[in-house]
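I am sending you the entry underneath: sequence plus fold tokens. Let me know what the token row says about the fold:
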Amino acid sequence: MSLYPGLGEIDLTIAASPEDTAQRPTRVSIRWREAASAAGWGVVGFAALMAIWAFGAWRVSELPSPAETFAQLWTLLGNAFHDGGPNDKGVAIRLFISLQTVAFGFAIAALVGVPFGLFVGASSRAFRAANPVIQLLRPISPLAWFPVWLIVFKDSGQAARYVIFMTALWPIVINTAAGAGSVPADHRNVARVFRFSRLSYLRHVLIPHSLPSIVTGLRLSMGIAWMVIVAVEMMSASSGIGGYVWDSYNGDSLTNVMSAVILIGACGLLLDLLFLRIAKAVAPEEVKA
């Protein structure tokens, strides 16, 4: 209806000119700018790290410089898949052995930790019973469990896997329980009104609401497990990358040690990016927060 009878409808919309439309940034251009900015600042961060490292190598003559380390790393990567026996393996094979150990312990921790965390978070009685035990066991260093598992299994490799299990278990349990315990009262009331069975409540309310917390716990536990694997393999005399670091140190080859450190960090970064992609897929708002 027009405010001024007789003049008809008046269109007050201001059309954008072709020049304004062309200058308006698109989503693709914004993403490219953000990616370029992140890459630029990443280069700055790595340049600062290399400068600090070079300064440390200049002050401590035994410490290899970045140039020496990357030259040795290139040599190691050239023979990455060499396999000359238990103590003569390439770095790719050693990394694969470490990843196998971490994957085994992490998988067992996820299979145990997620259901247990859901149970503890969903039941106040279970929480009161389990929380003191969790708080007692959680602060114990993972390496303290190695002699225990070694007595149980009589095998250092198997003991190392279950040390990773103990390492990865608690972040999964705690985060899953926190997610399960934060289900809104309205959701629980609706489930009661519609008389959901326990299985229906689990499928349609508890797990969907807890999923962001579960993924966060899995991501944290994987990062911690990958940090611990080096120390565990040093204790167990493993053929993995941790054993390589220890053998290189005993062989007075710090360039090999620093090369292995770079590879360990790169693998840890890739594992974290993998779980970050999973987190973005199931809970993008959790990642943004």
